[in-house]
Write a structure and sequence with these properties.
Radius of gyration: 19 Å
Number of helices: 12
Largest sheet: none
Shape: elongated
Structural class: mainly alpha
CATH topology of one domain: Leucine-rich Repeat Variant
CATH class of one domain: Mainly Alpha
Number of strands: 0
Length: 188
């Protein structure tokens, strides 16, 4: 079978009734770097959550168009927390400022700590000053979110950041304290 035939089979499998077949087809097309924006649109908008999750994993590894990145930003509103987490991760990988505003909201208010943590990580990757207060505020969240906030704060400088890191160097969670220490910016 030549590559055109293989590609045609993979494209056809994107419409297969079984979600697993659609996932495998998308992986194959990504491996060959031949996914079109329309195919991304279909995978990112798939009715099956496992396909949407996998599409986010795959899209985060490629160079995507702004249209596809905007589709990823839209998934920050998905009902599935793991889709939201995957969308935040992908936006951070893209370093796409088009996702800044919804990431700020998720980092500050989402019910699921995994989503808040992923949003904080993405905000750190974006490094936009608008995220400073939200990232510092995450130092009052659950331990995994606090640890992620320490890493995100590494992208920023200033007295507010140094004060936040100094406060975090006394955190009750040893991993948060260790993250501060690894930055080499603690005040001890």
């Amino acid at each position: 079978m030549d590559s055109d035939e293989a590609r045609a089979l993979l494209v056809a499998a994107l419409a297969a009734p079984a979600p697993r077949s659609r996932v495998l087809a998308l992986r194959g097309l990504v491996r060959h770097d031949v996914v079109t924006d329309d195919q991304w649109r279909g995978a990112l908008g798939d009715p099956d959550v496992t396909v949407r999750r996998e599409a986010l994993t795959q899209v985060s590894q490629v160079t995507a168009s702004d249209d596809v990145k905007d589709l990823v930003v839209a998934l920050l509103n998905d009902e599935d927390a793991l889709v939201v987490e995957g969308a935040a991760f992908a936006i951070g990988e893209f370093v796409y400022l088009g996702g800044l505003s919804p990431l700020l909201e998720i980092a500050a208010q989402h019910d699921d700590a995994r989503c808040r943590e992923a949003a904080i990580a993405a905000l750190g990757a974006l490094g936009d000053d608008a995220a400073r207060a939200v990232i510092i505020g995450a130092l009052d969240d659950k331990p995994p979110v606090r640890r992620r906030a320490i890493v995100a704060l590494a992208a920023f400088e200033g007295p507010d950041i140094e004060a936040a890191l100094a406060r975090a160097s006394d955190d009750r969670d040893w991993q948060v304290r260790a993250a501060v220490s690894q930055l080499g910016r603690d005040e001890d």
